[in-house]
From TrEMBL, chains A, B, C, D:
This reaction introduces a second double bond into the aromatic ring system. This is Chorismate synthase. GO terms for molecular function: chorismate synthase activity. InterPro entries: Chorismate_synth, Chorismate_synth_AroC_sf, Chorismate_synthase_CS. Gene3D superfamilies: Chorismate synthase AroC. The gene is aroC. Its cofactor is FMNH2. PROSITE patterns: CHORISMATE_SYNTHASE_1 (PS00787), CHORISMATE_SYNTHASE_3 (PS00789). It comes from Alteromonas oceani. NCBIfam families: aroC, PRK05382.1. Its EC number is 4.2.3.5. It catalyses: 5-O-(1-carboxyvinyl)-3-phosphoshikimate = chorismate + phosphate. Belongs to the chorismate synthase family.
Length: 366, 366, 366, 366
């Protein structure tokens, strides 16, 4: 059934296949009066775009987004915003050898089994190309969050195979092709990726997203917790296999006396929680990590079956990222922005009228 | 706004505070004709119940669930099922010292900031006591999944502080107070917990849930992916800080040639994916792990602030689990059952009519 | 699938059958800080209660509502509110003759066909008894609307069979057993009902609900229009077969020059629209009418079939309203309150932040 | 907040303003394997299109729909279907006199108050032009309903001002410009409309929609009743002010002995209920009526206010339908199709597995 809409009161409904006519979507619930242009959205689309560095796929997509409605005289009107990205690079191609085989690690087999048929061209709807519209929609949320609440979202690569970062400097993230915040690791990354490309193999990665200048109070109790919604959003990104908030899996060996963040009159003394307690934001930095599996499309030969169930050999040709984790950075930012905007509006729905909360702690430890 | 309902077409809406009159909920969307008794639900409530071992809180809750509607002559009618668990152990108590202070690591501060007021007795709605209704509702889903689809759900403790399991034997999980599937670790766990209790501290844990005999095809593309919904469900359990599907964070250092599961005429040759590809179940075992933080209520003294923002000392007295992870096992099972049942019904909504899929692979590697 | 929840961000999920253990529900999304007691809800439950006059069924239900959660120290906490009404009058009875026959005009046949089985005692879930929880939940919404926005809701009987009202005086509605706002019709109603009871037959009715002191701007464009949501809510009340907003079916023969309400600097000059334009409230009185069919349970003999498809005679015995329309008045008020409260919160979610609207017209024509 | 999505598991999310770049939408939840072409959708778009007769607006819109995704090799894939209709007739025009005034009977005033700003060109999102996408989406539902369940939907004009139909002949509905099913009224309609056009005024209408070959069992109990959802869908069509199911407002003066439809071994003996009992379809013809107000844009001079609140005179120029009711016929059909398809899928979600119902009554009275 319907599973192409994200969000509860700020919603994004998307459509479009990798090799179809266009990708698009409907963004609904954006407050009126927000200044918005196509350029606002293009920034992140360009960051996500393949072909921007030698470490991402050489496929040219262009990804020019059009706003078809919901913006009038430069401002949102409060009605739904139509987004469209035409697919330009639809090479006429012979798909016959893909059509009847299941690439290992891909959704070919599960789509075929679920639906009984599938658009086999480039993965169809299961292609990472679909995330372009998420990034465009996330751009609207990012602008709103920053303008109305001052919230900023910083995504970055925190590990690629064996190369892990030691420090985080937001200012250099967009200055290198890896979205890496640690200048001292750039050379190691470069070298690792060069060797990897030669081998025809691919590698996993860890990506982090941090929201700064967070308000306290976002998130609903019990089910629609802020951390739960974030976990769902991140695990919903192609190739993600794990999600952490704050200390994540490190808590398994932590003691209570070590983990709990002390509250002081000047704010929290630490941030093991990652900025969420009881599913509600604490006002501290919101810290999220995720693990992305290595690209399954590699030139290393493998085995699989065809649609008749016969064993066959497979070698993926064509243009593929050796590490999908890199390009996932702007996608992860977009998904976090969508979750936060939804929760900002939800919070306002319930909490504005009867009382007004002023944070008890003036500042918050980051 | 509303955040106390879980699921899309099989839904659970819950209410109730830790020290209020009762907990309860409405389970909606259960197909008619399913045999169901209160005993079916009591089994897991008893597994979750505190006071069952010396390692969980001594607080007696009883947790007797009543089915108030939706079942007639022993079978579900297709209408909504009302559930009620009365709170028996409401000790009249002096809460004045809790009322005006924020326990570190708890939701006291965030609830107060979000709502401007809070039910401070025992954490109110943010208490783990609330999960009793999730377990009861999950019991309905478990019964349905097993009877209609043959799906079985196995939850277990896979690590507690430094003690990690080496093997998994489902048959012993319910035979020990730790829900531990590795008999060789029981003594180490026992010893570790005894020392921990003496120290007044608490410890984190890793819990796993596996669904066996899974059908292929569950999960929606793009947003309502099976793994995304599972991640949201698990991160929504009190104290969970991380969620993994399949190899989880291990994929960060894996290569594509290593990670991708080969399809063979006899099924998948491995299960790195944890039973999900492209957000859709593969028919293999569904494998989920989660990290639970150590209990914040410990007798080790700490610092915090009161509701006026003044620094104060705090020592949590009373009956608390030194490891909340243990009791989370039946909760995690329940949440997985709720997700799977919702997706079974969703799958049927869209896919039954126009075609009927027979799995191409007869069996599946586990 | 799930169909027992009403509303989008202020939601009510209900359960319970006519002759089961209890009725209940979960009200979710109520802002914190609203003063609320069980007495607030009991007022309308008592108005709805059967047995209050000789024209409604003599069945004693009592309908004492309990608030089980979500209220602490006299105020809502922002968490979900559990409601419970125990069924007291469960006469042990022989249902064998009802169990295997389909009462004409009732949901017996459709429930049986839909679900394959049904709780045949007193109609089960399809009984009007279920509306008690809607009335209780509506009581919360009514209190909120009046306290926060000053909105008042007035329901009344505007026609019963051939007896139609000429004038509306809100002050007498609760002073007579018909909820009739026209004192000059009370005698005619009394006489009509007396004759009707003798004949053993039943009669239809028209009920109206008016919300006064409405804000401008409630309702979403295109699909979740205020009038659309009201129409759905009213048609969802048992026995309702028609809904009108403003002039309703009279517009079929109206000309544009006659129907359109002129705007003047002092407000609208008329209210043919019933207070809604383009799906959004105008700030005028919101005017809704609905038609309720005559009770199908009558002592006039009829024909029907049994569950085997055989023709049989049927005479409904027992305690039934000769006009269900009368008791529908508080139910219609409750449903309108639920819709309005949901839209108040929805409006706030989207519109509070970026701009703030002051009505251009100071007063509004009623 | 978000209000541009219709449906629960078969959903349509739309965007687009009257004079913007394009209208579009996302249709989600369509089962895979349905044969679908753009021509299938164009049929109803052409029926709805203005300029097809001298009685509807002369504005040329063309309304060519494009399917951008979700269909592969002529069949739906089960993923979301993107729809796009480009706006061709965007005359460069001087809107300055519309921009600062509120047309009476239009949504100008309410949109301005709700959002603080509005796209004033041709009504923006509140324009009936928006319904083009509903008609396109409804075309998908119509095809599904007919192919999979054999359900057919017939919309027609049943009254226009004083001219009411006496008989219904489905075969002539599409043969005349009024969608009138009674050949004997065509001349009267023609004459009435000619006089009306001369006067510069407009007129209301009554439109009916009937679904034949209905299955028994569609509709959920309590809140998501089939009739409730239909009432919401119809009242959500621009200009609709009243909705009836079956006998509608006639029930006000009916007696129970008269209204209740007798069940016989050969089916129902009458259809006062309009094919719905207890919110669930009976298998009889589903009969719905609605009242549409007269067009507010007329050349008869009127009074209104400008955006500063000053009184001004207004005469609407341009191309407008003297009776919007006529073109509402395909829109009403589309909305009914969307509701029925959603309920078909919902029914299947809950009811397919545990039991399978065979109707007790072989045929049904229409």
């Amino acid at each position: 059934m319907a599973g192409n809409t994200f969000g509860k009161i700020f919603t994004v409904s998307t459509f479009g296949e990798s090799h179809g006519i266009a990708l698009g979507g409907v963004v609904d619930g954006c407050p009126p009066g927000l200044e918005l242009t196509e350029e606002d959205l293009q920034v992140d689309l360009d960051r996500r775009k393949p072909g921007t560095s030698r470490y991402t796929t050489a496929r040219r997509e262009d990804d020019e987004v059009q706003i078809l409605s919901g913006v009038f005289e430069g401002k949102t009107t409060g009605t739904s915003i139509g987004l469209l990205i035409k697919n330009k690079d639809q090479r006429s191609q012979d798909y016959s050898n893909i059509a009847n085989r299941f690439r290992p690690g891909h959704a070919d087999y599960t789509y075929q089994q679920k639906y009984g048929l599938r658009d086999y061209r480039g993965g169809g709807r299961s292609s990472a190309r679909e995330t372009a519209i998420r990034v465009a929609a996330g751009g609207i949320a990012k602008k709103y969050l920053e303008q109305v609440h001052g919230i900023k979202i910083h995504g970055f690569l925190s590990q690629l195979g064996p190369v892990a970062i030691d420090t985080v400097d937001y200012s250099i993230i967009n200055e290198n092709p890896f979205f890496c915040p640690d200048a001292s690791k750039l050379e190691a990354l470069d070298e690792y990726m060069r060797d990897l490309k030669k081998s025809g193999d691919s590698i996993g990665a860890k990506v982090s997203v941090v929201a700064t200048n967070m308000p306290v109070g976002l998130g609903e109790p019990v089910f629609d917790r802020l951390d739960a919604d974030i976990a769902g959003a991140m695990m919903g990104i192609n190739a993600v296999k794990g999600v952490e908030v704050g200390d994540g899996f490190d808590v398994v060996t932590q003691k209570g006396s070590e983990h709990r963040d002390t509250l002081t009159p000047d704010g929290f003394a630490s941030n093991h929680s990652g900025g969420v307690l009881g599913g509600i934001s604490t006002g501290q930095d919101l810290v999220v990590h995720m693990a992305l599996k290595p690209t399954s499309s590699i030139s290393v030969p493998g085995e699989t079956i065809d649609t008749e169930g016969n064993a066959i050999d497979i070698v993926t040709k064509g243009r593929h990222d050796p590490c999908v984790g890199i390009r996932a950075v702007p996608i992860a930012e977009a998904m976090l922005a969508l979750v936060l905007m939804d929760h900002c509006l939800r919070h306002r729905a319930q909490n504005a009228a009867v009382h007004c909360t002023t944070p008890i702690i003036p500042g918050s430890a980051k």
